[in-house]
Specification:
The protein is α/β, with parallel strands linked by helices. It has a domain of 129 residues. The chain is 24% helix and 28% strand. The protein has a 16-stranded mixed β-sheet with strand order 1-2-4-6-9-13-17-20-24-28-31-34-38-41-43-42, with helices on one face. It has a 15-stranded parallel β-sheet that branches. The chain has a 10-stranded parallel β-sheet with strand order 8-12-16-19-23-27-30-33-37-40, with no helix packed on it. Helix 7 packs antiparallel against helix 15, helix 9 packs parallel to helix 11 and helix 11 packs antiparallel against helix 15. The longest helix is centred in the first third of the chain and has 24 residues. 57% of the residues are buried.
């Protein structure tokens, strides 16, 4: 039977996409005084907008991998659709950030494991109703039955008395979370049922902690087999249901009060249940099932982390205060929104907070779902790697609502997606600073040992092992969405809307005067079958990249796309930049308005394409495309030595080997 409920929406989506593509390829006429800048520049090399694509039959001679995501194919085959998909995604996320369940569902759909919990009815309502009808002992007993704990779970008389004295709102919210955790456990078990029949799961938990460390020895036959077995959809159904309850509980608890000196602690086989009042409390390192704290400047050494396979759910809700979250440095154990083979959620509702993590922290998912939501304050996030919105075979989400915030990391963070994973960093507003450390060299890049690999700030990455053991894994999705403010982004290599090996990397900034600092493979770029995109919607921005492949540059069947929509911008660019295509890649640079300045002396830039392959190779017959557009009628400044690039001018460029340039090297540009 036809699903009439979905049919109208599907029709609208198709119409919307078609209209969006027409708009991008059609008209900035009212501003640029030209019917179609893109069509005009492409016509110089005998192309149309339809030619900005990759032929997968040609590409199959060089690549192909498993776990390639449908969204990757859409972006990769239709680069001109990317702005409209990403705008739609960013607007939805910024408008629905409080709906943690919906954001998790959004991520699960992007990685092709989606379910739409809550589309019809509220699947979490049963937990709230159960909390109304059951005593807390009954809730704990139901948890014991589901988890396979022996006997009944009875509180001591003292604990029962203290529990009975708590405000009804608090008792109701906590009971609902515990009841939801019990049900969520069933989804976790379904997700890993086939795996658990073949593997020692606690052992595999310890083994998988090494996977994000980029140690080649972490990938062996056992790992390659393991990753094919989880039933991911079950994992994300449980994640959404639990997030609905935690969001409701956090809102409910905001209206409850307890004495400042109140302290409640209950041991369970899944970890501690701890409740603190409005005073300055300390929570030592431990396995926690649930922490609820009502205020004060608190110090956390544990909470909101699955520190073993036997602790599948960990929730932390802090209602107020300037708090400090400090994990053990250099530990591989997850912390503070680190979900590993389970679910870990941290909701901090108010205060100027400081978060310190090591690996898998601050909204990171590794075969699980990790989420950190900070609702207000000027916050500081410090982590080493695989953190701050990082998904590796899982979903990692960091949401910060307001304030002037700073994010510090080294590697694979700040919107990073690895295989079967999505990492999302969503910052709503404020003058924020994003740093992937490039001064303390701990992860020297193979491209330049003087700089760190970053894999951060909207980076999708895959495992390229075809030249090691033959097994490669297509990458995931990394999104960094910033809603406004004068922001600074700084990183080494592979960052700021960058993708590598069948992956998607996106950095989207809505407003503000921003600065982007990077080295190589940054600012809307990528390599080896990727889709990298940077979109700055408004503001006077400054882009700096120092070594190679940046600011709308694509290498080896990659689309690298930088779209700046408004403002007087400055570009300090290296080689292979500003619409540079290399080795059958597509580089697309489009600045829609403003008085802009371009400082670049290298060769493959300002709309140039270079095959750069061996003579008479198959690559010679496959297009390489470089496109540069500056529209909007501004008074733009170009390097004097690039005398072909001028205001109100269109141009073409031959490949770098001008004596043997190829018809498949399509380099073009224009200023309108």
């Amino acid at each position: 039977m036809r699903n009439l409920h979905h049919h109208p929406m599907h029709t609208r989506l198709v119409v919307w996409i078609a209209a969006a593509v027409v708009v991008l390829t059609m008209n900035t006429a009212s501003v640029a005084q030209t019917p179609d800048p893109l069509a005009t520049v492409l016509a110089q090399v005998g192309m149309t907008a339809d030619d900005l694509t990759f032929d997968y039959d040609d590409m199959s001679n060089y690549g192909g991998d498993e776990f390639v995501l449908p969204l990757f194919r859409t972006y990769h085959r239709h680069p001109l659709r990317i702005p409209y998909y990403v705008d739609f995604h960013a607007d939805w996320l910024l408008g629905n950030w409080r709906n943690a369940s919906g954001v998790i569902g959004f991520c699960s759909q992007r990685i092709d494991e989606g379910s739409r919990r809550g589309l019809i009815g509220d699947p979490a309502e049963k937990y709230r109703l159960a909390a109304d009808s059951l005593t807390f002992n009954q809730v704990l007993d139901s948890l014991a039955v589901i988890a396979g704990w022996s006997g009944s779970f009875n509180m001591t008389a003292a604990n029962q008395e203290r529990w009975a004295g708590l405000p009804p709102l608090l008792r109701h919210a906590v009971a609902a979370i515990i009841y939801a955790a019990a049900d969520t456990y069933r989804w976790r078990e379904l997700a890993f049922a086939d795996v658990a029949e073949r593997y020692d799961m606690p052992k595999m938990y310890q083994k998988m902690l090494r996977v994000p460390s980029w140690d080649d020895e972490a990938y062996d036959t056992e790992v390659y087999e393991f990753i094919h077995l989880p039933r991911w959809k079950y994992l994300y159904v449980g994640a959404q249901d639990l997030a609905r309850v935690v969001r409701w509980a956090a809102d409910t608890l905001a209206t409850a009060t307890v004495p400042d000196d109140f302290a409640y602690r209950l041991e369970t086989p899944w970890g501690v249940i701890a409740i603190g009042g409005g005073g300055d409390d300390e929570y030592p390192a431990d396995d926690y099932l649930l922490i609820v704290d009502f205020g004060g400047d608190d110090v956390y050494a544990g909470g909101a982390a699955n520190r073993s396979y036997d602790h599948p759910v960990s929730i932390l809700i802090d209602c107020d205060g300037d708090d400090r979250y400090s994990a053990v440095a250099d530990s591989l154990l997850p912390s503070f929104g680190g979900g590993v083979f389970g679910y870990a959620y941290l909701f901090d509702c108010a205060g100027n907070d400081e978060y310190h993590g090591a690996s898998v922290s601050q909204g990171a998912g590794l075969f699980g779902v990790g989420c950190l939501v900070d609702e207000s304050g000027d916050d500081r996030y410090i982590a080493h790697m695989t953190s701050q919105g990082s998904g590796t075979f899982g979903i990692g989400i960091l949401i910060d609502s307001t304030g002037t915030d700073r994010y510090d990391t080294y590697l694979s963070s700040q919107g990073y997606g690895f295989t079967k994973g999505m990492g999302l960093l969503l910052d709503m507003e404020g003058n924020d600073t994003y740093v992937s450390n490039d001064t303390d060299i701990r992860y020297p890049s193979s491209q330049s040992a003087e700089h760190n690999d970053a894999l951060s700030q909207g980076c999708g990455f895959g495992l390229r092992h075809d030249y090691i053991d033959g097994y490669s894994l297509a990458g995931g999705i990394g999104y960094l969405i910033d809603g406004g403010g004068d922001d600074v982004y700084s990183a080494g290599l592979f960052a700021q809307g960058c993708a590598y090996w069948y992956a998607i990397g996106v950095l989207w900034d809505r407003s503000g005067h921003d600065r982007y600092n990077g080295i190589w493979y940054v600012q809307g770029s990528g390599a080896h079958f990727g889709a990298g995109y940077l979109n700055d919607k408004s503001g006077n921005d400054h882009y700096v990249a120092t070594m190679n492949m940046a600011q709308g540059a694509g290498h080896d069947f990659t689309i690298g796309f930088l779209l700046d929509e408004a403002g007087d911008d400055e570009h300090d660019a290296p080689n292979l930049s500003l619409g540079g295509g290399n080795a059958n890649g597509i580089g697309l640079f489009w600045d829609k308005a403003g008085n802009d300045q371009y400082r670049v002396t290298a060769g493959t830039t300002l709309g140039r394409a270079n095959v750069a392959g061996a003579a008479a190779s198959l690559r010679d017959s496959i297009p390489t495309i470089g496109v540069f557009i500056d529209a909007g009628g501004g008074n733009d400044r170009y390097p004097p030595e690039k005398d072909f690039a001028r205001n109100d001018t269109v141009w073409t460029q031959r490949g770098t080997n001008v004596e043997k340039s190829l018809n498949t090297e399509k380099g073009c540009g224009g200023d309108f």
